[in-house]
Design goal:
Number of strands: 12
CATH topology of the largest domain: Alkaline Phosphatase, subunit A
CATH architecture of the largest domain: 3-Layer(aba) Sandwich
Order of helices and strands: HEHEHHHEEHEHEHEEHHEEEHHEH
Structural class: alpha/beta
Largest sheet: 8 strands, mixed
Number of helices: 13
Helix content: 25-40%
Strand content: 15-25%
Shape: globular
Number of domains: 2
Strand order of the largest sheet: 4-3-5-1-6-7-2-8
CATH superfamily of the largest domain: Alkaline Phosphatase, subunit A
């Protein structure tokens, strides 16, 4: 009997020590990240829209957790996607202007997951077009402008993949919808029945273009449905599926702006056995948070040297909050848009700092160009000649004050700037200091990346202004805001 005690102890220790090993050997979940392109949060049924048909977004919301407070790091394509794939804000990763690239020496998304044993693959617009090759994906395809072959290629990839022998998969799929050019047809949408965003001049042409955008959103939803079905059929039952968009739509006061229409995006996560079906959260999260969150979901550790913070406890239902504030940054987009902006947002208030209010705000929308919407914006200018409300909107579009402050509960459309309200003086000062402190911490140099169009020279930004998306070049750096 005495001789059997050591044997029992040894057996117990073997079982005890085997438990961590078994946990480590638990199969890693397959991961799918699906991204639409230029899609504001409110333009989908899970966020209350009655105008847009997005049944697949709703299907995903019914199966998972919907984030009401999901935000991007920057409201233009390349900076937003670089922030996602590095976990770093634009000033730190180097991709500040649109078409910019992150620093080559930075560790990027694929490397983190390859270290965990994942195959990391991208189809469609995941990084910014031809930048995809710089990120280190095991395989990528169809990353050129409006190359819609990425969706069927991703479906075919999943069908042919031998999951029994393959590594765990981290799959990115980027739809080109609803990025312009939008469909020529309304595809069943009645322009007269669509509601228009705050700050819109209501003209017949505007409504026609809004219907085209709605059709583009539905095309993006169709792409999502194909990937959802392929993932369900060909991947594991515990697949982690995340859907979001890189920033808001190409509409005045949305893309290229730090208003919510530009930075607040759809975000839905389905992870069977973890996220509760049909639930919502008010937790505030940023795109830089995706990398550490999904790393931890895959059993890895959150990097310590990035801006992102894991919201895995929110997914697990253990926490209801994540961030207290969201910082966003915009620098510009070639010669189309030269207008650096910084902002901070909490649950109730938004502060915007326009670093150069002497510059004219312009974009592909108002300037002549092949991918713009001047066809309807010109009707705003015509209306402004006789209608004061239209004139005020057009003026606000081009000329911004140095500071903007919005009560998001009372004014979710951000139409009433309270920066000059003496009752908000202390709040304004506090949020101003928060942005200044954050910029110092980021080593944000307030760089202007192109020759600006000035408010003092209307010919530089009017309908006959020269346009063209020239390659960004650094102009003399302006000082930090005081």
């Amino acid at each position: 009997m005495i001789k059997t005690i050591p044997a029992l102890i040894a057996a117990f220790l073997c079982i005890f020590n085997a438990q961590p090993l078994a946990a480590k050997q638990k199969p890693l979940p397959d991961i799918v990240i699906f991204l639409t392109d230029d899609h504001s949060q409110l333009d989908s049924t899970p966020y209350g829209s009655k105008d847009f048909s997005t049944p697949n977004m709703q299907r995903l919301a019914d199966a998972g957790l919907t984030f009401d407070q999901g935000f991007v790091a920057s409201p233009s394509c390349a900076p937003s996607r670089a922030a996602l794939l590095t976990g770093l804000m634009p000033a730190r990763n180097g991709a500040e202007p649109n078409h910019g690239k992150p620093h080559p020496e930075l560790k990027k998304w694929p490397a983190y997951f390859q270290e965990l044993g994942y195959e990391v693959v991208a189809f469609g617009k995941v990084a910014h077009y031809k930048h995809t090759a710089d990120y280190g994906f095991d395989y990528f395809a169809h990353d050129t402008f409006h190359d819609h072959g990425g969706i069927p290629a991703a479906v075919e990839f999943l069908k042919k993949r031998n999951n029994a022998k393959a590594k765990p998969l981290c799959l990115f799929v980027g739809s080109n919808w609803p990025h312009v050019p939008w469909p020529n047809e309304n595809e069943g949408y009645d322009p007269e029945k669509l509601s228009l965003p705050a700050g819109t001049v209501d003209t017949a042409a505007t409504r026609e273009w809004r219907a085209k955008y709605a059709a583009a959103v539905t095309r993006g939803d169709n792409d999502l449905g194909l990937i959802l079905d392929a993932a369900k059929t060909n991947l594991g039952k515990d697949t982690f599926f995340l859907f979001s968009s890189d920033h808001g739509t190409q509409w005045p006061f949305a893309k290229w702006n730090c208003y919510d229409a530009g930075i607040r995006v759809p975000l839905i996560v389905s992870w069977p056995g973890v996220t509760k079906p049909g639930t919502r959260t008010e937790a505030m999260v940023s795109w830089v948070d995706f990398l550490p969150t999904i790393l931890e979901a895959a059993g890895g550790k959150s990097p310590k040297n990035i801006d992102g913070r894991s919201f895995l406890p929110v997914l697990r239902g253990k926490r209801k909050a994540h961030r207290d504030e969201i910082f966003t940054t915009h620098s510009g987009d070639g010669r189309w848009n030269i207008y650096p902006i910084r902002s901070v947002r909490n649950a109730d208030w938004k502060y915007i700092r326009n670093l150069h209010p002497e510059y004219a705000f312009t974009t592909h929308i108002d300037l002549p160009g092949n991918l713009g919407q001047r066809a309807y914006y010109s009707t705003w200018e015509n209306a402004a000649k006789t209608d004061k409300q239209a004139a005020d909107i057009v003026k606000r579009y081009h000329a911004r004050p140095e500071e903007e402050l919005y009560d998001l509960k009372a004014d979710p459309g951000e139409q009433r700037n309270l920066a000059d309200d003496p009752r908000q003086a202390s709040r304004l000062k506090k949020m101003r200091k928060e942005v200044e402190k954050w910029m110092r911490e980021q080593n944000d140099q307030s760089t202007v990346y192109n020759e600006p169009r000035l408010l003092s020279d209307p010919n530089s930004y009017g309908p006959n202004a020269p346009s063209g998306n020239v390659a960004p070049k650094a102009a003399p750096k302006s000082g930090k805001p005081s």
